[in-house]
Description:
- The structure is a single chain.
- The protein is of the alpha/beta class.
- It is 43% helix and 23% strand.
- It contains ten helices and 13 strands.
- The chain has a four-stranded antiparallel beta sheet with strand order 6-12-8-11, with helices on both faces.
- Helix 6 links the parallel strand 9 (148-151) and strand 10.
- The N and C termini lie far apart (79 Å).
Amino acid sequence: MKKLLTFMLMAFIMANTIFAGGSKETQTGDLLERIKSKGEITIAMEGTWAPWTYHDEKDNLVGFDVEVGQAIAYKLGVKATFVEGEWDGLLAGLEAGRYDIMINGVDITPERALKYDFSTPYAYNRTAVIVKEDNNSISSMADLAGKKTANTISSTYAQVAESYGATVTPVDDLVQTFELLLAGRIDATLNAEVTYYDYKKEHPNAAIKIACIDPQTTSVAIPMRKDDDSATLRAAVNSALEELLADGTISAISIKYFGGDITKN
């Protein structure tokens, strides 16, 4: 009996070892293969930056980038699963492998391009300098020198403000930024021009205005990890974006959320 039990136990262990080895084998392959195998792509975004990615009155996650993500996932034949977080942690989470891609109005910069590979641009940004209505001290980008601004610290907008000599107060999200501005604790904030118009649409009595527009237009794209594991995913995302831009899908989404087409430079 003891020998029989021993034999059965060894057979059980061997069977499980073989099964585990088979399971491990099904998990091999590059990132795109694993995404298709599990049937979903994990997309990181803030969820607090209207009209790019935010919650509507029913608390549904909506926005330009949400629908772009869903359209890409459809092209890949998988479901889009969104994970929300604060801006400063999203890129770090992408690098650590917690997300497959990030879609959150991310501008391509030389610094970011060193750490991440970017997709084909799918939108273009104009940066606005936003101030209180009674502030006439800023009429050009050069006037930011010596001024106090607020932005999420690793954002392109913070970098632009600092490049013109402003001191940037770090914040968690757009809501906090406008709270500081309206309270008079900062002189200005930089953000996408379309974000300003969306905010004014939702808060028509907000005493703010655009002081000036940065003459440099930025390209918005999707960052992914810079490694061989992500190479086929980048190619597939690029192919999806090219199709969605060519057939007017992203243009239609842009008009829906921004009132204009930001897919043209």
